[in-house]
Amino acid sequence: MGAYGLPSDVIKGGIPISGLFDLRPFRYSWLQPKLLLTHETIARESPLFLVEQAPKLPPLLTTLGGDESAEFHRQSSDFSDQWRLFGGEATGLDQPGKDHISAIAGFEDPGSTLCCAIKDFTNRIQSKRASFD
Questions:
Q1: pTM of the model
Q2: Residues 6 or more apart in contact with residue 118 via CB below 8 angstroms
Q3: How far apart are CA 118 and CA 110, in angstroms?
Q4: Is residue 79 part of a domain?
Q5: Is 43 inside any structural domain?
Q6: Are the C-beta atoms of residues 62 and 118 closer than 8 Å to each other?
Q7: What are residue 123's phi and psi, to 5 degrees?
Q8: pLDDT tens for each residue of the chain, 133 residues long
Q9: How many separate domains does the chain show?
Q10: Is residue 122 included in any domain, yes or no?
Q11: Which CATH number is 42's domain given?
Q12: What domain range includes position 41?
């Protein structure tokens, strides 16, 4: 049992959309005077640096808009690579023509690339669980 009496595998999968996984660049951005990020805060709060501490890594579907900045693409790629390095399954979905705001727009259309990818992802998770039951 993990924290709060929950099993360590209570989370069966994750779908970060346009995620920020590495806070280091923010220390040098226009937001730093408001965020006041320290080296310690960045290390403690950046998901990229927490992967190796996870007791179990559920499958991930990482997605972002194709028109997002190179930094968003780097962070998603690095996070997925780190996830796989520590034994997790991570797949990516690039959404051409989408940006940080519109990357979630596919939720309103069940036939969209995003919804279809999410359905496939959850079906794979269900299939894996069923084979263990």
A1: 0.88
A2: 15, 61
A3: 10
A4: yes
A5: yes
A6: no
A7: -65, -40
A8: 566 888 877 889 999 999 999 999 999 999 999 999 999 999 999 999 999 998 889 999 999 999 999 999 999 999 999 999 999 999 999 999 999 999 999 899 999 999 999 999 999 998 877 665 5
A9: 1
A10: yes
A11: 3.40.50.1820
A12: 13-132
Q: Quick one: tokens of 100? A: 């940080």
Nearest CA-CA partner of 122 in 91, 79, 99, 100: 91
Do 67 and 94 meet the contact criterion of CB atoms below 8 Å apart? no
Using alpha carbons only, give the angle 122, 107, 13 rounded to the nearest 5 degrees. 25
Extract the tokens encoding 123: 């079906």
Q: What tokens were used for 43?
A: 């290390």
Nearest 5°: phi and psi at 22? Answer: -130, 110
Question: Checking phi first, is residue 6 left (phi over 0); if not, alpha (psi -120 to 50) or beta?
Answer: beta
Tokens matching residue 83: 């996830």
Residue 17: CB atoms within 10 A of its CB come to 20
- Residue 52: phi, psi to the nearest 5? -65, -15
CA triple 106-22-15, angle to 5 deg: 30
User: Does 63 map to a domain?
Assistant: yes
